[in-house]
Request: fold
Amino acid sequence: MAGPRRRAHYIEGKRPGGMPRMLRMLRMLLHAALFTTGLVGLVGCQDRNRGRSPVDKGLFFPAGLALDPRVMPDTPARWGFALNANSDLSFNAGTIIPVDLEGFFAAWMRDPEACFAGDAESCKPGQPPGLEPPSSAPADAADDWSRWPVVGDVGATLSVKQPCRRNALKPQVIECEDTYFLEEDAAVHIGNFGTALRGWARDPEDPERDARLLVAVRGDPSITMLQVEEGDDGLPHLECGQGPDSGLYDERRCSQAGLLKYKRNDPGGVRISSEPANILATPGDPLVLVTHATTPTVTLIDLDGQYVPAGADKAGTARCKGAGDDVVCKDGKAAIVDVPSVFQSNGALGGGWGLARRPCFPGTDNVPALSLTTDANGDTVECGRPLIYAGWRTNLLVVRMFIAENEPQTGYFDEGYLAMVKANLDQQIATTEAALDAAQSDAERKALADQLARLERLRANFDEWNQAVENGELYQRCLSTANLTADEYNGVDPIEFSTAGAFPCDPRVFAAGLLRAAAFDLGLTNTAALLGDIAFSKDGNRLFAVQTNPGGLAYVDTSLDSRGLTRDYEAGLVELCAQPTAMTLFSDEANEYAAISCYKPAELFIVDLSGVRVVANIVLGTGPHAITLDQARQYLYVANSLDKTISLVDISRLRPTRFSEIARIGLQVPYRN
Reply:
């Protein structure tokens, strides 16, 4: 071995035992390359640890679609918003992304505007594939089919000019490449495992004033809140605390005030429960409720914020209450204000799911007694507070509850009583003065003089106190966050001297009894998923509850008795598919219907609620769940989570395709990354 080694050294022109110059240079280059590669590897490692970004990924695990909350329900909205839940963790975040619904319809439908007005021919797909252009223009411009959009045949290659084709399994269904209708530049990133997406507007008559999207996110957990505004480029702008000042490496990710995680926005306070499942957000009402699938609590959010002293910083127009130096006002910063435990019965705790608000009709006999409140003058206010039902997830029970704020009272002292007290004091003083004048001894005079002095002090104190009453300076006080810390506030009146006699004035949830809502009772354990969504009929006299296991739809009589109390007894059922959970109600001029999605068999059941009977079951994409109603266009959008599509189901009485799937946003493929 010595010989060859020497020969190599000789060839390199270096004495034995030393390192050749060329080898030394090579080692230096290799060392530099390895060092650089190591740095790149470390950086690359960090990037890989951050996961893959969902930018430009289209639909992935869609869990819901909400229409633009800035648009009135009877007006076709250009924009929808899709929730990508990222439930298989393919990426490092979920997303909320705008969907151009107008562009989607225009890409395959002959005349969307005429279609929505009731012309069935205009709803059909555009040019059939393979037709030659006409040799001459038709006499009637309405017969010029060449102006219709081109729809590809099964398996056609899609492009910007031809983004839609016929579905291979259901050629009557049009499927369109989703990325052509998603505005990626306007998307924001959220936590993983989003479960519900809801739109909300402060003023239903002027929704552009303040419109928001609310997302229940299991991965954080949080309620992510997004302001919906008009961007400079005409696209929707979603604001949720993202951007270069968010402190996050992903500048698209919602953060800070966009995430509601802690009671009273206090990071040291109570954190939101795990598994947020459903959101009840009623336009015009700033009070939002959230259920949690595995815990007995409900989360109450006040979008107007919490009460703070009148002089504190506030955002927007604040609502105030109180008197004197103790006026408190909503600070305009959305906050979690109450986290009560309501899903409990006979010591057993469960999780929650469905939420529904019973309709109330002032001036009629359909006003629940629990919705009655009083105003500042003590007069009765009908429908002053909502009556809300919340369904268990792990039991065949529904909780009845309401939300109320305490109102501080002023001028609540009886003037007649005060006048009587004053007259009594005056009489005692006069009697004591007369007795003092007639006293016969020094001891008697001293005792009467002391008594008179005491009465005069009482009279002076009474005059001062009575003047305060007349000036409105005596009143009940509202506690604000300035008076409370997370440790002190437990939902009851604190006893500290600084807050004695005061009480929390923020809204609170009050439970008001349980009722059963069972289609079938097989005696399953309370760990099973038993109930899904719940919803009221338009008149509020029936509550419908989806039973997940086994599949059925129960309905409960919620009409009012002579006392104004809801009857709340089980009235009937209808058998459904396997494992239904999500439901939405819609109506036409004749009847009300329920649309119920069935995740495992990939179906949508339509139930006629007048006779409580199934009138259609529609095969959709894989894993259908969340349902959104487009009232203006008379379609349902159903999110098919496992094949990354959104199905379009026709519900119009004016179209022959009623109760059938007619199109999809996204191409049906086995679920893949």
Summary: The longest strand covers residues 222-230. The chain has six helices and 40 strands.
